[in-house]
Specification:
There is one protein chain. This protein folds into two domains: 31 residues, no CATH class; 142 residues, OB fold (Dihydrolipoamide Acetyltransferase, E2P). 31% of the residues lie in helices and 30% in strands. The chain has five helices and eleven strands. The termini are far apart. Helix 3 packs parallel to helix 4. It has 179 residues and is of the alpha+beta class. The strands form three sheets. Strands 2-3-4-9-8 form a five-stranded mixed beta barrel. Strands 5-11 form a two-stranded antiparallel ribbon. A two-stranded antiparallel sheet has the order 6-7.
Amino acid sequence: MIKAKFMNKKSLALMAVIILGIGSSQLGYGQVKDGIRTERVTITGKAFVIDGDTLVIRSRHIRLQGIDAPEYKQTCQRPDGVTWGCGLVAARQLRQKLEGAKLTCIGEQWDKYGRLLANCFLGEQNLNRWVVASGWAIAYRFFTTEFAPEEEQAKATKLGIWSSRFIEPYQWRQSHRQK
């Protein structure tokens, strides 16, 4: 350990800049643009699935950008009136798709919870697109319409959650916030 009494103020300032610079790049908190942290980040590794649109890779929480899957505890209702755990099933389907495979997630913004907003790829396949096309999430049109065609196709063919009635995930979250 370096003793501060042997260093001048300029050396201490330079060391602080280096330490802070290394720390911030490792955390992925880059520049701030319009109040949003930005920095292009690529994370590769095996993913742990939290729910239908949230993953953890190497201790980093990642939110699949542009999609909104049912919350883990959210339910849907089939035409015959049977209620089922669509949020649980959406997460299970994503887990089965990944089966321990290595993902590459690329993003440059973080949400208010500190999760990287990213497009993730299983080989060449865009995982975000697959989740929506399979009917396990909706296109999150509030932020982008990129996955709207996949949602329309899943809806037309009644895949996944589209086989049932459901509250859109963002509305479900609003109605279930703890007060």
